[in-house]
Amino acid sequence: MVSAPDTFALWIRVTGLLAAVLFLVSVGHGAVGRALAAELGAAAGGWLSLVLTFVGWIWMLLKPGR
Fold first, then answer.
1. What is the Cα–Cα distance from 54 to 40, expressed in whole angstroms?
2. pTM of the shown model
3. What is the pLDDT along the chain (66 residues), one digit of tens a residue?
């Protein structure tokens, strides 16, 4: 994972891991033939977590004294 190094804050690493797990759940449901609309919560949570991770990356890059 890109956000795994400890150069990023813990909350950034956790949201990145959460996004990966939620997307994995989504893909797993699709792989076994379940309708993806039935588990919309995992996909929506994955996107939200991914956006929070991106915000964290940007915040770390723009933070003064980095």
1. 21
2. 0.78
3. 566 777 888 999 999 999 999 888 888 877 887 766 655 677 888 899 999 999 999 998 898 876
Kindly tell me the burial class for residue 62, based on how many C-beta atoms sit within 10 Å of its own C-beta (0-12, 13-18, 19 or more).
exposed
Dihedral of the alpha carbons of 43, 44, 48, 54, in degrees to the nearest 10: 40
Residue type, 49: S
Tokens matching residue 50? 């991914």
Angle, CA of 1, 41 and 55, to the nearest 5°:
45
